[in-house]
User: Fold these one by one.
Assistant:
Number 1:
Amino acid sequence: MVLGLVACGGETLPVRGTANGETTFTAACTSDSTCPAGMVCEGCNGPHDAVCVPGCREDAQCPPRHVCRAGVTCLTCPCAPGWCELDPCRDVDGDGYAFTKEPGVTCPGKRTGDCNDGNRSQHPGATERCANGIDDDCDGLTDRNDPSCVQCTAESQPCNDAAECLEQSPLGTGTCRSGCCQACPVVAQPACRAGERSVGGGLDPVTACRLARVCITSACASERWDPQCGRDFATYRTPCELREAGVALLHRGACVPNEGRPCAVTACPEGLFCRVDDIAGPRCTQPGACVVDADCPAGLNGPSCVDGGSGWRCDASQCVSVCR
């Protein structure tokens, strides 16, 4: 058996055929319900010669996020009255843009032309981020090839990420924007109300710029002093403060100077380990800091296990040596 194509209403549909070109189909049927999933019962001369052929009559017969293209006119017989295709108005990432670019296709409540239905920040009209390797605004031009990107000057050197700007500015004051090293925006600190105090003020995980501090209630005042280093590379006095600020734990104990420094280009200062974060990218942190077991040993030295095991697990955000 070989795979062939049958023309139907200006479209081509895959069908099974023999090597000599004779079209063959599946077993005889009496109704759609007697056919396998993805097939319907069709015949040329009435139900007595009907067979199951690939096709659909309504969306419910199609896989998830597919619709049924019904009403085709076939040039051979038998041929199903429709086939399943991905819904041209699907919007998997929920950004309000449908993936279709077909002229004449309208999607009520949505705009069309999305070039990546798995990234809600990537769609027509989005701001082109000029150093992330992505066509953010779906115009077919990426990064500095896009006219919307800023042209760098002698005082603003080209860059691909925040790490490349370290030599031009202290940690937290410069970043890579529009493909150029530029100063971080000025951070406005909050005015806390009576009974509140400000915490945080660490680094943005993407830009490496300073974040504004946030106000938390005094509910944590009675908790015992137990410093925590957050995923924003700011030190919180207690686990309660970390929770109140809505920040995930990086490791127990206070953050140290240069922790959070990007390290894709420049090595970490002595005593720090270059750890790859799924959001922040390569950042300097204390050896042994982890989120999952795969992060370990994270710069720590430990014994080799005689049974060939890894010898490490991530326990309370710290790599610990365990040989089975």
Number 2:
Amino acid sequence: MNRKLSAYLLLFLSIVLALVLQGCGRDDEITVDPVDPGETPVDPVDPQEDDGDDADDVDWAKAVGYVFDATVIPEIHFKVPQAEWDQLLAYYNADNATQEYVHCDVRYVKGGSETTLPDAGLRLKGNTSRRWPGDADSPQHVHFGLNFHKFNPDEAHTLKGLRKMDLKWFKDDPSYVREVFCYDLFRRYGVWTAIRDVHARLWIQIGDHKEKYYGVYGMMEHIDKNYLRIRRKEFGGKDGNLWKCAYPASLADTHASMGVDDNRSKYVYELKTNKTTGLEAAKTQLKDFIRHVRDLSGSEFDAWIASVMDVDLLLKTYAVNVAVGMWDDYWGNTNNYYLYFTTTDPAKYKVYLIPYDYDNTLGTSSSGLTGGDSGRQDPYNWGKDEAPLIRKILQNSTWRAQYRGYLRELCLGSGLCAKTVAQDRIRAWQSSISSYVSNDTGQDMKIEDKPASWGNHHEYRLLGGDSNTNWFEVKAAAVSSMK
């Protein structure tokens, strides 16, 4: 056998041996995703999204206080060139889950002050709520994402330092308050990880056509590096790993898909920070957390979870979740939350669960819960056994009592989620926007006290109803029965 053939044979045997050894590995071993040799590798990361430290001198408290001040309802105006809107439609027609941006100019008007933001990025948002965005003659309510910094990565292209915001129409929420109510409740109750969400009014002009009024939207803080900067004192830093977690993110499976947010791929766990160089270390860290959540039990689990999470904050988060009937969450549907690891060290970290996406609440529910009724569901058995984090925490009698106490504090007496207290806030919000709801789309033209039409409990009411149909009364009864 000649020397060249021997070398090829040796190489072949080495590859076979490596594959055999890899197949014998444990589920916690890291594997590198294969590259299709028929495709040209593309850098998946937009460098403008993986923010550096250039904005650390921004007064974040002042910036957020100005933009998300709920005492004034701001106006947002988009001016989108016809060619750019046509491109947005083309992106949607090619892929209705597109995350591609087009160019637009933005005006943000608040009281007597106006901020002009030229050449910003505009894209469609949403999951099951996605639909064709219409045109100048037939506008449609859709969710939008704004990135002022997208095409011009400098601080001049920010809104008081903020680079992004999300605009959500009140899909399936005739009350126009569900998501605003929930995020406000989180913050009133000391859950500082919750984002800000306030009402805003939206206009869009496409090309040379007349500007159209889209009505009242929810204007929401975007969860990204700026979100971390704003809370860096609470987190103890801002440079760790941020993951967006979507169904079925049970925290029980180390084989679940994990990858960077590249505007193209869909993952169960999607990395939002440190995307350029930190994916493998971030995956190792996340898998370490999942293994501990899945495999530890009893006092060993209790000691570990107390060392890596603020359990009290998590219990408060979940008391709010259950109080508002959030069934499409981690515990109920293994969906709709973020995780933030405060370091990039795969073995040494603190981790926080960040609540997210609260439009399907306050009586709007589906079969994601075992009992299918988010008002009457047992708060101790809210979600699925295959979501072990909360279930294991509540096996600790001290934490279980703490959780019960928080729910009683929220829902009974004069608590923030008790009937009359909650209704006062709802009426104030609805009164402030009632004259602005009618709009040029012809959709969602009035405020109504009812849940989404597709839900499985059409009877729930926020302001009306009786002991069997008023959301807050039904929830208070469920909480009162906790032992």
Number 3:
Amino acid sequence: MIIGTPKEIKNHEYRVGLTPESAGELAAHGHDVLIEKGAGLGIGASDEAYIAAGTRIVDTAEEVFATADMVVKVKEPQAVERAQLREGQILYTYLHLAPDPEQTRDLMASGATCIAYETVTDNTGGLPLLKPMSQVAGRMSVQAGATALEKSHGGRGVLLGGVPGVAPGKVVIIGGGVVGFNAAQMAIGMHADVTILDRNPVTLERLENHFESSAKVIYSTNAVLERLVAGADLVIGAVLIPGASAPKLVTHDMLTTMQDGSVIVDVAIDQGGCFETSKATTHAEPTYVVNGVVHYCVANMPGGVARTSTYALNNVTLPHALKIADKGWQQALRDDPHLANGLNVWNGQITCIPVAQDLKLTHTPLETALKV
């Protein structure tokens, strides 16, 4: 199979779909691997490193898209990239389609087979290809929030950890999954006053047992959320419904009760965000202010620590890329029902139920794609 990785073109996105080591693994399996010139520079990987790994360097993304049987990326394809996809071509990357009808329409029109990292599952019900980026984003959310709280960045001028004689900042984390857990670890490490909200009794017990007295773990209701948000210095949105748009848990009315200069970090922005006032931002202009509250809603947070993120991502995406390349996508998905859950678009049709439901599109059963 011919496998291609173009340079990422989303604003301040420095990750790359394949590291030299991953590209070398695919080449060692007998596949022809194409890498766009300079694609790995954002993680410190030179073209020479890819050549040494047994891959070919091509001058343009257009050549990658025109030649590759499978395109391996990090972020969802931008409009100029979607226009280059073709019928039967495999796209293997993050997609986050539920809040993005324009991308969804373009992928359907392309006829490409689109496998989304974020809906691949494992035998525990987890999302193993999303997990490492959730870990990164969760940890980064506290760093970003702490910076935004500085007066020079529009915040209240609060140091999260406080100092002797001055109370620490109050951090409220909505959601106790992978993002929330990692955010809590960082906030606790900075000696902030941390509260984690969730509704899953198993999650609440796990968090309570792990953090003990270092964090308050509370069952989330609208009344509790409203009260805690009003007094918070930093609120982190860490809610995920796999494949679907994030629920709008913090309303505009709740926002008006928050203190001027307080900060929200919406890690769920890839799926539309869990704050009613959220809109996607970039690393170039990461924040904006609504009702005196600083909003940080960067849609590709892990791109800011590209080297760590790329290697963490490749650790989990490479085994599936090898399956797809070695067996062909249909056989690979037939053999691995968890990988099959990653199929979102096939032959102009939506095969992911949450995406179809959120965008009010017809759902085609996964079995139909795998029988052809």
Number 4:
Amino acid sequence: MPKSRLFYYLSALRPYQWVKNGFVLLPLVFGEKLVDPAALKHVLVAFLAFCAAASGVYMINDIADLEADKLHPVKKLRPLAQGHIAPAQALGLALILLITALAAGFALNFSLGICLAAYIAGNFLYSHFLKHLVIVDVMAIGLFFLLRVVAGAVVIPVVISDWLLICSGVLALFLGFNKRRHELLTIGQKAGGHRRVLEKYSIYFIDQMVAVLTASTVIFYTLYTVDAGTVANFGTNGLLFTVPFVYYGIFRYLYLVHKRRLGGDPARIILKDGMLQINLLLWLAAAIGVIYFAK
């Protein structure tokens, strides 16, 4: 049965990618504001604003990468690459989403508006320049994740732990390099035609980066749980008991990347793998239990 035009527009928005905006919620949990109705409302607005901004950016990127996406075995199935949506129509919808996101952000909190503006501007800079610079391309992706965490903190407002920012950034780098690895494996010799920077990467090099980031992620998170400031803030060292969930999550992700070749899109992996979802919920439940009930 033919798909409707609405289906193609919704597909172009890539709503499954909104799971990445879950980073906006971290300050709500770790800032002990989870039971504050005003904080919940503000973080929800920030989350929705980032969803609108992300979808707008994705659509503009799809317009810019239209020819390159046609060379990719998966991206060639996107609505713009297949011709189901005209570039002019996509651009119009993207601008509406971006303007709406910025308006909502500045209306709620000036700092949130700045975070959203930085996210949008950073993505444009990434699309036209940074994505062609080896290593810098992945570091830019990590910065976008950090902006989400900062945005979640400024709207509450709370002071977010430096350790938590470091953990979020390193985890984002871990996901980014695994994505580059999958692109190399999937596209093979045509990798440079789809994304020029892939010519500068190799599987061996990326595996070295992933090894460093794997260790860094679990070590930094462990240090965060036992840090004197963390223990004093939460009144307990019980957060240490959430470390096994972080280990399992990292190991499960690596298993999916290396054994099941599913490392192309972190959002899709999380949404498709039940074990990762269960582990994430258990980690969140354990963290909430320690922070709010173990004092």
